[in-house]
Design brief:
Radius of gyration: 30 Å
Number of helices: 4
Shape: flat
Structural class: alpha+beta
Helix content: 10-25%
CATH class of the domain at 135-242: Mainly Beta
Strand content: 25-35%
CATH superfamily of the domain at 135-242: TonB-dependent receptor, plug domain
CATH topology of the domain at 135-242: Ferric Hydroxamate Uptake Protein, Chain A, domain 1
CATH architecture of the domain at 135-242: Beta Complex
Low-confidence stretches: 265-270
Strand order of the largest sheet: 9-14-15-12-13
Oligomer: single chain
Mean pLDDT: 78
Length: 270
């Protein structure tokens, strides 16, 4: 056996040994699902979903959906937390491929104590607070329930109640907003994520007096700019989410009325 043959044999053995001892990549999967309120079945946005004992987890989006990727196969305990709700833990089994769907329903926190008066604002504000906590921006969120509980004539009046926001008035009625001390022309107004056009000839300030507060489902005021936003604002961005008609259920229609009475007297002179 010559030297060349010996080298070829040794090279083949080295390759075979490397292949045999190479680590086998573990099969991974995806855990996904929807987080809902157990009673109303409404999705919970901004909830935290974690695989207990690991560093893997995700936050739910506006539709209550979550997705945890690259999860090795095995047995886990899925933990769901949300402000104002009881924490829930559920054992799950993750397979080697495909997706494991786990939908979670959370119960409202029940505290026994003195009699208190509960209003409809609490439910909406829970979701707004969670959106603020999980946001990667400096943002203030106001829910529809909170907006309806305030005696505001228009959207500008509602936004003006938030910290760092001032209302400018024309004819006694709020129509534009100042954010962080910067004039309205340095701010941006959005309706469901679409920028509103301005009616002014010399700046881009937007008149908010034409938007009724009863039309709003939520208000989001962002005071910082992230990489997914246009770099065309210095003060802040106000996003108004409009209410949508429900397929069923009941609603509230505001209205006003009055009675005018007139008294007519006639005197006959004889």
């Amino acid at each position: 056996m010559n030297v060349r043959t010996i080298l070829l044999v040794l090279g083949g053995l080295a390759v075979a040994l490397a292949v045999a001892t190479a680590p086998v990549e573990a099969a991974t999967s995806t855990v996904e699902g929807i987080l809902r309120d157990a009673k109303t079945r409404e999705p919970l946005a901004g909830g935290n979903i974690m695989l207990k004992g690991t560093g893997m987890g995700a936050a739910t989006d506006v539709e209550g959906r979550y997705r945890i990727i690259n999860v090795p196969a095995g047995n886990y305990t899925l933990r769901a937390t949300y402000v104002g709700y009881n924490t829930k833990e559920q054992p799950i089994v993750v397979g080697g491929d495909g997706a494991t769907t786990v939908n979670l329903n959370l119960e409202n926190v029940t505290i026994e104590g003195e009699t208190v008066t509960i209003t409809g604002q609490a439910s909406g504000q829970k979701q707004a607070i969670n959106q603020q906590l999980t946001s990667n921006q400096i943002v203030n969120v106001v829910s529809a329930e909170k907006i309806q509980g305030l005696p505001d004539a228009n959207a500008a009046e509602s936004v003006g109640r938030l910290p760092g926001v001032t209302v400018l008035r024309y004819g006694g009625e709020g129509n534009t907003v100042v954010i962080r001390g910067l004039q309205p022309k340095y701010n941006k107004i959005l309706i469901d994520g679409v920028q509103m056009a301005t009616a002014e000839a010399d700046d881009r300030s937007t008149d908010l007096s034409t938007i009724s507060s009863s039309m709003l489902d939520a208000i989001q005021v962002s005071k910082s700019v992230t990489s997914d936003m246009d770099a065309d604002v210095l003060g802040g961005t106000v996003n108004f989410s409009l209410r949508e008609a429900k397929a069923h259920g009941s609603g509230l229609m505001p209205g006003s009325g009055g009675i005018q009475r007139s008294l007519q007297c006639s005197e006959q002179v004889q």
